[in-house]
Amino acid sequence: QGQLAAMTSVSPEVSVGQHGCSHCGALFASRNALFRHLSEACDPLATKRKEDRDRVVLVVGYLGSRYHGSALNELSAEATRPTVEGAVVKAAQIAWGCGDALSVARCIKTERGSHA
Questions:
Q1: Which residue of 4, 11, 55, 72 is most buried, as measured by CB atoms within 10 A?
Q2: CB neighbours of 89 closer than 8 A, spacing ≥ 6?
Q3: Segment 71-84, tens digit of pLDDT
């Protein structure tokens, strides 16, 4: 997101064919030069390579009657109103020892009492 923001929210003085950094206002002739500038100077985290992260795809089927939907509730509510995502995240954290450094992108959402 930092990359997109740096490329799109620039001042009106940027002409066609120029790419401006929203952090410092510097102008560049190419997007490659802008991204190089971002990674070296203004926003190193925005250009973090995808290879630096591990990605895992899980296909999960479940009986939904004991869960309160698929989408994760607030952590304080998971004890009393468990969700499918909460159970999967907890199992992944235990299995891979990843603690809080885990993010989830779901591709389906169901309601309480439904089955997938």
A1: 72
A2: 72, 102, 104
A3: 888 878 888 999 88
Residue with tokens 């410092």: 24
Question: Is the whole model's pTM more than 0.70, yes or no?
Answer: no
> Which CA distances in Å does 20 have to 37, 38, 39, 72, 82?
10, 10, 14, 38, 46
Those residues whose C-beta lies under 8 Å from the C-beta of residue 101, and which sit 6 or more positions away, are none
Q: How far apart are CA 90 and CA 42, in angstroms?
A: 36
pLDDT for 85-114, tens place per residue? Answer: 888 888 888 888 776 666 677 776 656 666
